[in-house]
Amino acid sequence: MPIAPGLLDQIAAQLAALPELAIRRMFGGAGLYSSGVFFGVVDDDRVYFRVGDGNRDDFKRAGSVAFQPIPDKPSMAYFSVPTLVVARSERFLEWAKKAVDAARAAQTAKPKRAKAAPAAVQTVPSRKPAAKKAAPAKRRR
Predict the structure, then answer these.
(1) pLDDT given for residue 75 in this prediction
(2) Residue 138 and residue 81: Cα distance in Å, rounded?
(3) CA contacts within 13 A on the Cβ side of 48
(4) Which pLDDT band, with edges at 50, 70 and 90, does 132 fall under?
(5) Among 17, 23, 75, 78, which one has the highest count of C-beta atoms within 10 angstroms of its own C-beta?
(6) Which DSSP string corresponds to the chain?
(7) Are 32 and 48 in contact (CB under 8 A)?
(8) pLDDT band per the 50, 70, 90 thresholds, residue 4
(9) Cα angle for residues 14, 63, 94 (degrees, 5° grid)
């Protein structure tokens, strides 16, 4: 869904204190990053933050809903930030910091994927085309 004009600018201004804040457009919405850590989503004019052990109760008390971009698919670990929180910059920043912490914790909890070892390079002997054999000479009788 489209995002209202000016909403991303408003979010950027409110969260400017986060280290290396970046907002990137994606799939019709936008992703929120701090120091390269993906901690939030803006979609259909709603802000969703990453939820973890340190902020889950805040979202439950606020009656937040899970971000579910595809109907009938399991919801993701991002929940809506209440409008009253977004309207108060200090509180919004506080919730954002907790979301960054939750996203970092989720990254460290994931088992690291092992990088695939480079495949052994096999050398294939070059094959030169076989020389054309001369046609057998015809015998004369």
Answers:
(1) 74
(2) 93
(3) 20
(4) low
(5) 78
(6) ----TTHHHHHHHHTTTSTTEEEEEETTEEEEEETTEEEEEEETTEEEEE--TTTHHHHHHHT--B--SSTTS---SEEEPPHHHHHSHHHHHHHHHHHHHHHHHHHHHSPPPPPPPPPPPPPPPP-PPPPPPPPPPPPP-
(7) no
(8) confident
(9) 25
Domains of the chain and CATH, by start: 7-109 (3.30.1460.30)
- Name the residue with tokens 């970046």: 22
Q: Are strands 46-50 and 29-34 parallel, antiparallel or unpaired?
A: unpaired
